[in-house]
Automatic annotation (TrEMBL):
GO MF terms, alphabetically ordered: ATP binding
Lineage: Bacteria, Bacillati, Actinomycetota, Actinomycetes, Micrococcales
Keyword field contains GTP-binding: no
Name by which UniProt lists this protein: Phosphate ABC transporter ATP-binding protein
PROSITE patterns: ABC_TRANSPORTER_1, ABC_TRANSPORTER_2
């Protein structure tokens, strides 16, 4: 990720989609820069933080393809408001694809298509009347590899989503958002005296928390996290996990993780994904995290959470 993202990159809007059920073929490679896309927020007024209610996300009958290769088959999952939902399962079973479908990032891939519905508090984010930018604004994303704008200051990184999309905010409001977002991301104390230093000068763990702060600055209702700690050391991982447990009071969180201890530490509920040989992925079992780990219903879940495969 470089500093070359332009306003048009993040405010561009993909073609409207046919309503759910049908396989949707989306080929326009309009928004390629994942980080920029994760905070698209064109032309909206930021609500006061206290006025952003917790939201539930629900996936209904999600199927996904890359070309003719079906990678998910009719996956349904409710991700409750104010909870951390962990998506677990072996490599290649479709967890990241499912996550990207939850904020319309799957459609950035030219060969990608999907079917089904994603409801944010009951409204389908794929409905033809809904803007792509609305989905991205309400449903933020943090990636496996920290991707701050390296030459941009810490302060400007946090408000990058506002700046790039031309969202009007006065100086006091920006200062407030920078401090509150960095505080929620657990980074404020470490950087408050060097807000004008470049984001690229932070450690990997700090950069990841900076990216979390950047996502939070546009006040999303849901935060999607795709293996957010896999590039981090154990200390940074612990800090991010503590941050997540704080954040979940304000945003609904969905995390993909390969780390079973992490899933147990941070999540309220788990969904175990699996794909048979040559078959699309699906959810074998989901439910309360403690129950999934202590007394799973399906033998395959038992084997997976106990490290017997995957
Ligand atoms: N851009 C792409 N183009 C074509 N196929 C893809 C693409 N991305 C993923 N796939 C395929 O989709 C399937 C699901 O991949 P996905 O990354 O969603 O799985 P995953 O469970 O998240 O894996 P991992 O845990 O290794 O990240 C795999 O067969 C993968 O090869």
């Amino acid at each position: 990720m470089t500093d070359t993202t332009t306003q048009s990159d993040v405010t561009d809007v993909l073609p409207r989609l046919p309503r759910g059920g049908l396989k949707r073929r989306l080929t326009r490679p309009a928004l390629r820069q994942e980080a920029a896309a994760s905070f698209s927020s064109a032309g909206f007024v930021l609500p006061e933080p206290a006025n952003v209610p917790l939201a539930q996300l629900e996936a209904r009958n999600i199927s996904a393809w890359f070309g003719d290769h079906e990678v998910l088959d009719r996956v349904s999952l409710t991700m409750p408001a104010g909870a951390v939902t962990a998506l677990i399962g072996p490599s290649g079973c479709g967890k990241s694809t499912f996550l990207r479908i939850l904020n319309r990032m799957h459609e950035l891939i030219p060969s990608a298509s999907l079917a089904g519905e994603v409801l944010l508090d009951g409204d389908d984010i794929y409905d033809v009347s809904r803007k792509l930018t609305d989905a991205r604004r309400h449903i933020g994303m943090v990636f496996q590899k920290p991707n701050p704008f390296p030459a941009m200051s810490i302060y400007d990184n946090v408000i990058a989503g506002l700046t790039l999309t031309g969202t009007k905010t006065d100086r006091d409001r920006r200062d407030f958002l920078v401090e509150s977002s960095l505080t929620k991301a657990g980074l404020w104390k470490e950087v408050k005296d060097r807000l004008r230093a470049p984001g690229g000068g932070l450690s990997g763990g700090q950069q990841q928390r900076l990216c979390i702060a950047r996502s939070l600055a546009v006040q999303p209702k849901v935060l999607l996290m795709d293996e957010p700690c896999s590039a981090l050391d154990p200390t940074s991982t612990r800090v991010i996990e503590e941050t997540m447990l704080e954040l979940v009071q304000d945003v609904t969180i969905v995390i993909v993780t390969h780390n079973m201890q992490q899933a147990q530490r941070v999540s309220t509920q788990c969904a175990f994904f699996l794909a048979g040989q040559g078959q699309p992925g699906g959810i074998v079992e989901h439910g309360d995290t403690d129950a999934m780990f202590s007394s799973p219903i399906d033998e395959r879940t038992f084997n997976y959470v106990n490290g017997r495969f995957g």
